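so ive been stuck on this for like two days lol. basically i have the seq below and the ligand is zinc ion, smiles is in there too. i just want the complex predicted, nothing fancy, no docking runs or whatever. if the output looks off dont worry ill sanity check it later, just need somthing to start from for the group meeting slides
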Amino acid sequence: MKYFFGLILFTFITSLIGFQIQTDYRKIHFHSIVVDAHNDVVGRMMSGEDISVKTSHGHSDLPRFLDGGVDVQIFSIFVSPRQPAKEYYSIANRQIDAIESFIKRSDGKAAFGNSADEIKKLVIAGKFVAMLGIEGGHIIQNDITKLDHFYKRGVRYMTLTWNNSTSWSTSANDETQQSGKSKKKGLSKLGIKIVKHMNEIGMIVDVSHVGEKTFWDVINVTTKPIIASHSSIYTICPNKRNLKNEQIRAIAKNGGMVCVNFAPFFIDSGFAAKEKLMLEKNKERVDEFRAQQKNDVKLKEKTLSQFLHKEYAEILPSVKQLVDHIDHVAKLVGIDYVGLGSDYDGISVAPAGMEDVTCYPKITEELVRRGYSESDIKKILGENFLRVLKHNEG
Ligand SMILES: [Zn+2]
């Protein structure tokens, strides 16, 4: 009997704790300024999709951002280097036009935020704040004055390289390749000028995608805090796109931050092999799906991960594994140097439970469960980014 009452008491207390976490995390999440540093949905906008209304596929749209408690989204301006080089600049400008027209269509729900102070005011006024970041320095076509143009249009960071190098900086992809391209050139004289100019005008230098040589050159040159807008942790998942501990220490010393990328490939070192095996096992179905997709308009919108939903569910990393990356930075260098850079709509598949932008509260839930204080969680969710932005303005 004693045992029975003990069990009831235990169940009551644990469910009470569960309930407490449940209410606490939602309160904390929706009372924080949630900033995500990297989202690629602009690609969908350029295909004519209207994300001011709910969409049936992809990861992001305005109603879903609001559901997920996202207050500030930095939209990535990305032009594939396979496009003709002379068109990089004009395509980038058309992408900014598309974001401007999205804001116009939002019925006053969304607005551009250009400074940390303005962003805070807009969030308090209940707006969804859009910001811009350029992904890939090739967009400025070796012309420093184009940085000024983009700054005026609202661009507040530039990722120096994408997977391709520029004539003035080498990418992680090229620096780690075994071919002739692998020379670790880092920043050239022009590259140093570009970084200094970005510091001057208040455009944050973003080191996601850059090679290690470029990274260390940036650290030596920059006078303002830098970011990695969408990179995760190399110690947990050794991928050339992730950051090693000495890089994370250097970013912290510089006053910058790491915005953790949600891509399963960057979160879980075993994911690529697991996916390969799973796709081999389901080869017939995958081939059939791809053949059908070519002819069926509706199926075109469906991703392979949606089609093989059950199979993916078994191999995807969890929210806990994602939060391990945040935890790692916080434990290594402190709470002030970590944030979020999902890469939603740029990644083909997201961790289990993190299917789209409505899922951000789950990160907060996990942080609460791990004992992070409310003020620490607010830093991770957005305050760290606003601090870095503010330091770049001054
Ligand atoms: Zn990227």
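The radius of gyration is 21 Å. The mean pLDDT is 93.
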